Amino acid sequence: MSTALPLGIVACSSEGAALCYRTICAEAAARLGAHAHPEIALHGHSLADYVACLERGDLDGVGELMLSSARKLERAGAKLLICPDNTIHQAMDYVRPRSPLPWLHIAEVVALEAQARGFRRIGLTGTQWLVESEVYPQQLTALGLEYLRPDAEQRARIGQLIMDELVYGVFEPATVAYFQGVIEDLKARGCDAVVLGCTEIPLIIDDANSALPTLDSTRLLARAALRASLEGVG
Predict the structure, then answer these.
(1) CA within 20 to 30 Å of 232's CA: 94, 150, 170, 174, which one?
(2) What is the per-residue DSSP string for 99-112?
């Protein structure tokens, strides 16, 4: 393990960050042996601080929060950073040139997985901020992949459910059913896979209860970080 790069997790919501952390630790054992995983440091500003920036459209403010975490994680010994939150990747173009450490980009990781699995038209789910942004369209279209967004009413309702329930660890059956219905609509519109583009959605939706194959952004990012750490790639 001494050659593995120490990882830094820039947390936004607690549920998504916790799932990402658990995934790295659990899946590292298959490569490194029982109970073993790379060094991992985690820092998160209050989710309320991020939400305040998002609500006023201040992406530079989002970026400054991410950079503050990055600098703290560098001092803690991290060599490679990840952020298990899709929405705040809207600030990544601001963050990367100013960051003291390299980052993996969650949408880049997911888009590469979609391409590798042969998907062609990807449905997007996540907060309204994310789904209406160019975070995923930019990465998917760069690889020649198509994408579809849920309709405006669905985007608003999904965003509400994420922020009022999922980020608090509240998982209601009616909420699961609503997400399933949105995914069924995306399938009817010609999608062949769906991005679980909020890092809490994989806590309620997976391949077993989804009408479409899922692209689990949280676990895909965790696995990409683990691979990079073990390969010494920063």
Answers:
(1) 94
(2) -SS-B--HHHHHHH
Spatial neighbors of 27 by CB under 8 A, at least 6 apart, are 222, 223, 226
CATH of 7-105+219-231, picked from 3.40.50.1000, 3.30.565.10, 3.40.50.1860, 3.30.420.40, is 3.40.50.1860
Q: Which residue matches tokens 């490569």?
A: 31
Q: What is the pTM of this model?
A: 0.94
Checking DSSP bridges between strand 7-11 and strand 40-44, what pairing results, if any? parallel
Closest CA to 132 of 114, 159, 112, 167: 159
Q: Which of 39, 27, 107 is closest to 73 using CA atoms?
A: 39
* Secondary structure (DSSP) of 81-142: EE---SGGGGGHHHHGGG-SS-B--HHHHHHHHHHHTT--EEEEES-HHHHTSSHHHHHHHH
115 in Cβ contact with 145 (< 8 Å): yes
pLDDT at 70 over 60: yes
**Does residue 30 contact residue 103 with C-beta atoms inside 8 Å?**
no
pLDDT tens per residue across span 81-124: 999 999 999 999 999 999 999 999 999 999 999 999 999 999 99
pLDDT in tens, 24-60: 999 999 999 999 999 999 999 999 999 999 999 999 9
Sign of CA dihedral 107, 144, 179, 206: negative
225 token code pair: 């970080």
Q: Which amino acid, residue 165?
A: E
